[in-house]
Fold each of these.
Amino acid sequence: MATKKSTTTTRGARGVGEEEEEAVAAKKPSGKTEEEKVAEAAEIGYKVAGPLGADEKPFKPYEPVFAVVQIGSHQFKVSNGDSIFTERLKFCDVNDKLILNRVLMLGSQTQTVIGRPILPKASVHAVVEEHALDAKVIIFKKKRRKNYRRTKGHRQELTKLRITNIEGIDKPETVAVAA
């Protein structure tokens, strides 16, 4: 009977190694903490604002405003409602709201604001629509008369973003057209 009591007490007791395992399990499968993910996303030029709610309607009617935004090492000229393909953005899922904070230039019909190099109070809001693969690129190497041929393929991972809002510039009043 004494052995039964000792086994029940060891089952209820918590080992030192189990706490470390729980701390490791708390990290996401990528192996990075939340702070590391936020820092890496900020380095690329975006911030994940969270998932898009079921009752949210982020898309607004077209406004004649544009922005030049930098994501990673690429620059895009976008306006409200545009859809762009960027290199795959880490740590964001489909229907996540993003805030692109590296805005280089804003423009409308009445004014243009150019950053040096970025505009500090400007931001562009976007929603992740899908993650996809680009068309296959074939790399073929050959050295003639040496029987040397190598074929390799590559498909770039892409993220499709839909621009929902541009902040940081005065938007002109939309004139309703009488039908």
Note: The first strand starts at residue 46 and ends at 51.
Amino acid sequence: MAINRVITALLFVLVLARVELSTCHVLKGSVTCLDCNSHYDLSGIKVLVKCNQVKKLAMATTEEDGSFKTQLPSDAPTSSPSFNCLAKLLGGSTQLYASRNNMVTNIVKARESESYTISTPLNFHTSCPLSKKDAKCVAPDPKIGSSKTIDLPLPPEWGLAPSSYYIPFFPIIGIP
């Protein structure tokens, strides 16, 4: 009886030794504000991570100091991620200004094992870094392309919906 228990325990240990535990590939990085003071709260900024030939995306949210940490996306939990991965600065609760060169960066393997980092810093401004006359930072004129609807006053006794629901509709009559 004791030999059966020892053999069972030995087989159980051998089976567990063969099982490969899923490894987690972690991306660690940070964002930097170029025109902020040193006490600026960088929390809540979203960073998107996309790897080549992987359908899933990963989203990271920055901490107060601008650092973020997320798992690299992969289709299978035990598969290693593709080495062609990108991180993109998406935005935050306030308007951010960033050049196209500073919005996207490659992901490279860090010196630590199973850890990854961004190759170039993700930088942004909180105000327009260009001159005020430059059209790239000026908001579009709200008068052009306005989508205001016309609402004709209808008596409430009629029980109809607002006229803006009916006015844009032009029925085509006479086509069989």
Note: The longest strand covers residues 26-33.
